[in-house]
């Protein structure tokens, strides 16, 4: 894998006449986790899709650059807000989809190991319709982790999980994605406090950065600084938009 | 199993209503023979009917294979090529304003009384439903799946085979189910216009010789074969959807 680049997104987005977000500046450091928090509908998914080079329907004035100057599309793995599992493939088939779509031989062994670590071994040959929401989300996570991409965009990847599984999956993702540039969209201040090397808050009025504790991510959840940071994030999210 | 019982119950109900109609309305056998008479005609002509059924089934099956093949190829061609969509699709839709039945005499004129004019009838009648159902499915792949394929670096061809085609199989299946019902219609109309064999031909022949119970027996066999075909195609479609991996 090539070294992970940093990403800068500077610009504003609007749908025709109606603005989505004003000029914002999002700086994602290479090889670390950045978290993006904000109320529903403020444009978080739009930002991920812009970075992934996907169609959004917005008019975006500005630019998105990788720190190494090379184009981003083709170097990005994107886990969307919905699981997007193929109903005609079983769990392993979904997890190895990327390789097959590129005409490569899928690394079934790696996929099986990953599926086991995600606690889905007994479901490896089931179709998605036979899985619960949280299980489906973990399959989608596994599929994303199988993509060997330097930039990883995660849109609320842990939202359907119980507290314990969520913490385990966060650990697993942090470990697996070590050294990659990750942008995580989340609604959970606790998650951002635990995982974010940098944390950005956005709403309709713009984007601000919150300064996380000095301890490097992934932080212990019960650590007093992490908790304090989580509290500050929640307060910031609850502030009425200026 | 419950399906078998339901089918059986429907058959019993159908025969009962039939007999009731004949008895209550006091219909003469040359208008509507009762079930017992028709069963008798079926029994005493079983070899004859089987021979003609074989011809019709051959026409239908060859027509199905060709029509489905052409329909699938057309749908894929249209789906991958905007130029083909622009040029061919309007023409394809326009051809549907022409009733295929009207072509039957011409086909017989060109291709004679053998099975091929009927095969072509069947092809013409099923081609459009198959092509348009599959094409619709191919064009309606959920956008999220396509986006996923794009970020994964799939080429257009792999996107087609890996995502668009499997996602469109349920649509294709509904086209195939229609085709299974339409194909015998095409073949029988072809036989009515001019043939040397087949269930449609036998019906006309029996009618001409006032063997009304034979005519109804033939009709019954035709209906049963169509039902069987519809069931088998449905079953094959279910298997296809279930096995896609
Ligand atoms: N075609 C469109 N025209 C106008 N507005 C649109 C269109 N598509 C999406 N939007 C709006 O764009 C906004 C941003 O959507 P986006 O998916 O980026 O939000 P989000 O921050 O990810 O929200 P959530 O947290 O609920 O996922 C939403 O308010 C949505 O209503
Ligand atoms: Mg979103």
In short:
The complex is a heterodimer of chains A (242) and B (245). With 242 residues, chain A is an alpha/beta fold. Chain A has helices spanning 44-52, 91-95, 97-101, 108-117, 133-146, 163-176, 189-195, 224-238; strands spanning 7-15, 18-28, 33-37, 59-66, 76-79, 151-155, 181-186, 198-203, 206-210.
The top level CATH class name of the largest domain in chain A: Alpha Beta
Q: What structural class do you assign from the helix and strand content of chain B?
A: mainly alpha
| Largest sheet geometry of chain B | none
Task: Note the overall shape of chain B.
Answer: globular
How far apart are the first and last residues' alpha carbons of chain A, in Å?
43 Å
The general outline of chain A is globular
CATH topology of the largest domain in chain A: Rossmann fold
| The CATH top-level class label of chain B | Mainly Alpha
What small molecules are bound in this structure?
adenosine-5'-triphosphate, magnesium ion
Question: Order of SSEs of chain B, N→C?
Answer: HHHHHHHHHH
Mean pLDDT of chain A: 91
Main location (chain B): membrane
Family (chain B): Belongs to the binding-protein-dependent transport system permease family.
Subcellular location (chain B): Cell membrane
Domain ABC transmembrane type-1 (chain B): 49-233
What does this structure look like?
- The complex is a heterodimer of chains A (242) and B (245).
- Chain A is 33% helix and 24% strand.
- Chain A is α/β, with parallel strands linked by helices and 242 residues long.
- Chain A has 2 domains: 1-75 and 152-237, Rossmann fold (3-Layer(aba) Sandwich), CATH 3.40.50; 85-148, no CATH class.
- In chain A, the strands form 2 sheets. In chain A, strands 5-6-7-3-8-9 form a 6-stranded mixed beta sheet, with helices on both faces.
- In chain A, α7 (189-195) packs across α8.
- Chain A is globular and about 45 Å long.
- The mean pLDDT of chain A is 91.
- Helices cover 83% and strands 0% of the residues of chain B.
- Chain B has helices at residues 2-24, 35-44, 46-80, 82-95, 104-111, 115-139, 143-151, 156-193, 199-208, 212-243.
- The relative contact order of chain B is 0.13.
- Chains A and B meet through β5 and α3 of A and α7 and α8 of B.
């Amino acid at each position: 894998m090539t070294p992970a680049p940093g990403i800068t997104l500077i610009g504003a987005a609007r749908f025709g006449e109606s603005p989505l977000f004003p000029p914002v500046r999002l700086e994602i450091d290479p090889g670390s986790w950045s978290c993006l928090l904000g109320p529903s509908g403020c444009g978080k998914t739009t930002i991920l899709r812009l970075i992934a080079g996907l169609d959004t329907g917005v008019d975006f004035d500005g630019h998105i650059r990788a720190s190494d100057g090379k184009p981003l599309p083709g170097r990005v793995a994107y886990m969307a807000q919905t699981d997007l599992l193929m109903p005609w493939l079983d769990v392993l088939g979904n997890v190895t989809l990327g390789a097959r779509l590129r005409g490569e031989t899928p690394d079934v062994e790696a996929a099986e190991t990953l599926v086991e670590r995600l606690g889905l071994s007994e479901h490896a040959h089931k179709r998605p319709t036979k899985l619960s929401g949280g299980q489906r989300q973990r399959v989608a996570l596994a599929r994303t982790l199988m993509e060997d991409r330097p930039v990883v965009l995660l849109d609320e990847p842990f939202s359907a999980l119980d507290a314990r599984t969520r913490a385990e999956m966060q650990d697993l993702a942090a470990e697996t994605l070590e050294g990659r540039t990750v942008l995580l969209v989340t609604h959970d201040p606790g998650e951002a406090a635990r995982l974010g090397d940098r944390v950005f808050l956005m709403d309709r009025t713009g984007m601000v950065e919150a300064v996380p504790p000095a301890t490097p991510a992934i932080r212990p959840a019960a650590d007093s600084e992490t908790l304090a940071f989580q509290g500050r994030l929640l307060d910031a999210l609850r502030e009425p938009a200026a | 199993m419950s399906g078998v019982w339901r089918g059986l119950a429907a058959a019993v109900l159908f025969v009962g209503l039939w007999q009731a109609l004949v008895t209550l309305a006091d219909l003469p056998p040359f208008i509507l023979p009762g079930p017992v008479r028709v069963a008798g005609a079926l029994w005493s002509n079983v070899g004859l009917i089987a021979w003609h059924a074989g011809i019709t089934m051959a026409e239908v099956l060859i027509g199905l294979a060709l029509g489905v093949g052409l329909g699938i190829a057309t749908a894929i061609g249209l789906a991958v090529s905007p130029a083909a969509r622009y040029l061919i699709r309007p023409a394809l839709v326009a051809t549907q304003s022409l009733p295929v039945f009207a072509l039957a005499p011409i086909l017989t004129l060109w291709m004679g009384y053998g099975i091929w004019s009927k095969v072509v009838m069947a092809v013409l009648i099923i081609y459009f439903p198959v092509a348009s159902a599959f094409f619709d499915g191919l064009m309606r792949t959920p956008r999220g799946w396509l986006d996923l394929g794009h970020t994964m670096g799939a080429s257009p061809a792999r996107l087609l085979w890996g995502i668009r085609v499997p996602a469109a199989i349920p649509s294709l299946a509904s086209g195939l189910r229609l085709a299974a019902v339409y194909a015998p219609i095409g073949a029988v109309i072809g036989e009515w216009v001019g043939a040397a064999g087949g269930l449609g031909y036998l019906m006309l022949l029996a009618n001409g010789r006032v063997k009304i119970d034979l005519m109804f027996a033939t009709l019954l066999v035709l209906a049963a074969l169509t039902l069987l075909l519809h069931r088998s195609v449905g079953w094959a479609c279910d298997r296809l959807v279930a096995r896609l991996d």
